[in-house]
Amino acid sequence: MKRSLHILLFVLLATLQAQAATKSYKELSRWDNERLLTEASLYMDRLCQPDSALLCLSIIVSRNEISKDKANSHLTAYSLMQMGYIYMSFLVDYGRAYTYLRRAQDISLREGYPDVLSCVYGNLGILSYMESYIFAGADYDAKAIDYYRKALRISLTHRFSDNSAICFLNMALVAVLSGNASSILADARLVESTYSKVHFANPAYLLYVARGIEHQAAKRYLQAKKNFVAALHHVKAYNAVDSLRYVTTGLELVSMSCQKAGRYADAISYLKQALLLATTHHLPDEVMGIYKQMAQNYSLAGQHDLAREFRYRHLEAKNNFIRSSHLHHVAQEKFECEMNTNNALLKASLLRQRHMETAFGAALAVALVISTLLCIMFRLYRKQKSYAETLYRKNIELMKLQTEKYASSGLDESGKQSLRQRIGNVMDDVEVIASPDFSLQQLAEKVGSNSRYVSQVINECYGCNFRALLNDRRVKEACCRLSDKENFGHFTIDAIASSVGFRSRSNFLNVFKKITGLSPSEFQLYAKEKPVSDSDAS
Predict the structure, then answer these.
(1) How many other CB atoms sit within 10 Å of the CB of residue 233?
(2) Nearest to 333 by CA among 283, 269, 377, 285
(3) Does the pLDDT of residue 122 top 80, yes or no?
(4) Are 224 and 215 in contact (CB under 8 A)?
C-alpha cells in the first residue's frame, strides 16, 4: 500500500512538472532570438540553471535549423555549440555533448564560421582529455592537444582572445601532466609572439604561461615555476567559470614544476590551493585530477600513508563522477524528451490554430510514460550503484593485501628506487625483452637482485606484475615496428609478434587488443593512413 502511494505521488509530481514546463515553453517561444540568447547566457553564468538555458537554445535551433539564411544558420551553429558546452560542463553528459558539438562543427565547416568552430574544437579537446583521464589512453591526449591546437590557431588568426587563452591553457595542462611539454613548444612561442604584438585581453597571464612552457620543455623547472606563479597574479576575475579554471590550471602547472624540481612539499601546497577552489566551486573533473596528482607527490615524498589515502579519494571521486554522469544522463533524457514534445506541441499549435487541449493531453501521456521509465531506470541505477560499491571494496581489500604482503620485506626505500632504475634500464632494452624465454628470474639476475625483491618493486612502483609489465613493453615495441614502414614494412604481423617475444599469434592479438584497444591490423592500417610526426612521437 505504501509503495503504491509513493508511485502515485511520484506520478502526480511528474504531471505538475510537465504542466509547468509546457507553460514555460509557451512563454519562451514568444521571445525573439536575441532575447533567448541573452536569457540563456544569464541562466548559465549567473543563475546556474542549465535546463532553462537548454530550453532557450533549443527554441532557437528549432526555429532556424532548416533556414537557408546565413544569419540564421550561424545562430543555429552557435546555439548547438552552446548546448554541447552545457551538456559537457554543467550536466556531465559527454555523449550528448559530443552529438551537439559535432552538429555545430558540421554547420561551421560547411558555412565557414570560425568563431563557432574555434569553440567547438576547444570543447572537443576537453572531451578527448576526459576520455584520456577515464580510459587512460595516450591517444586521447594526442587528440586533445590536436583539437586545442586547431582551436588556438583559429582563435589567434581571428583574434578571439578569450577562446585562445582557455585553449592554450588546456593544451599546456595536458602536455605538462603527460610530461611532454616540448610537444607544444611551437604553440607556446606562437602565443608569446602574437600576444606581444597584438592587443588581446588579459595578455600578461598568457605570456607568463607561454614562457613557463618554454622553461618546462628545457627542464628549467624553477624558472618555469616562477613564470607560472607570476601568471597567477594576472588573472583578472575569479567569479566566471573560465577565470576560475585559469587559476586552478595555473596552480596545477606550478605544482608540476615543483614536482619535477623535486620540491614535493611545495607541489602539494599549490595542489591544496587548487583543491580548495575546485571543491568550493563544484568542479568534479578538477577534483579528480588534483587527487591523483597529490597521491603522486605524496608517494614521491615518501609519505605513503597519505599517498594511499589520496589514491582512495581519487578512486572514490572517479566512481562518483561516473555515477553522477549517469544520473544526469537519465535526468537529461527525461528533460530532452519533454523539450522535444513541447517542440512538437508548438509546431502543432501553429498548424492547427493552437489547439492546446489536445497538445496538453499528449504532454500528459508522455509525462506518465517518462515517470514509469524513470522508476525502472532508478531501480537499475540502484543495482549499478551496489555493484560499483562492491568493486570499490574489493579494490580496497586488494590494496590492503598488497601492503601486508610486503610488510616484512627487508628492502628499504632507497633500495627500491635503485632497483627500480635498474629494472627500467633492462626493460627498455628491446633485445632483452624480445627474447621469448625472458623471465622474472632472468630479470632478477640482470639487475643483481632476487626475484622476490624484483617482484615487489614492480608491483609497488609500476602497479602491475612482471608479466603485465613485460607485455606492455613488448606491445609498445610492436606498435613502433607496425608504424615503421621503412624498416618493418615487409614484415607480417606474425613476424612482428615473434620479433618482440610473443610465442603465439593468439596471445599477441589478445594482449595487443587489451593494451591498445585496437587489433594489430587496425593499428597498422591507421599508421599507414596517418603517419605519426616527429613532434607527436616526442
Answers:
(1) 10
(2) 377
(3) yes
(4) yes
Amino acid at 102: R
- Given a cut of 50, whether residue 398 has pLDDT beyond it is no
Residue with cell 536569457: 39
What amino acid is encoded at 122 in this protein? G
DSSP assignment string, 484-519:
-HHHHTT--HHHHHHHTT-S-HHHHHHHHHHHHSS-
Among positive and negative, which fits the CA dihedral 193, 197, 201, 207? positive
Asked whether the whole model's pTM tops 0.70, one would answer no
- Provide the pLDDT for residue 117: 92
Q: Which residue has the cell 602574437?
A: 194
Q: For the chain, what percent of residues have pLDDT higher than 90?
A: 13
337: closest CA among 302, 307, 367, 306?
A: 367
Amino acid identity, position 386: S
Q: Can you read off the three cell numbers belonging to residue 372?
A: 514509469
**What is the pLDDT at residue 475?**
92
Q: Which residues of 316-341 are buried (b: 16+ CB within 10 A; e: fewer)?
A: ebbbebeeebbbbbbebbbbbebbeb
Q: Which residues contact 29 (CB under 8 A, 6 or more apart)?
A: 59, 346
More confident position, 150 or 4:
150
Instruction: Report the percentage of the chain scoring pLDDT > 70.
Output: 76
Written as one letter, the residue type at 24 is S
- For residues 24 and 142, the model is more confident at 142
Integer distance in angstroms from the first to the last C-alpha of the chain? Answer: 66
Residue 116 near residue 108, CB atoms below 8 Å: yes
Q: What are phi and psi of 117, to 5 degrees?
A: -65, -40
**What 3-state DSSP class applies to 180?**
coil
- Identify the burial level of 223 via C-beta atoms within 10 angstroms of its C-beta, where 0-12 means exposed, 13-18 middle and 19 or more buried: middle
Please report which confidence band the pLDDT of residue 1 belongs to, taking 50, 70 and 90 as the band edges: very low
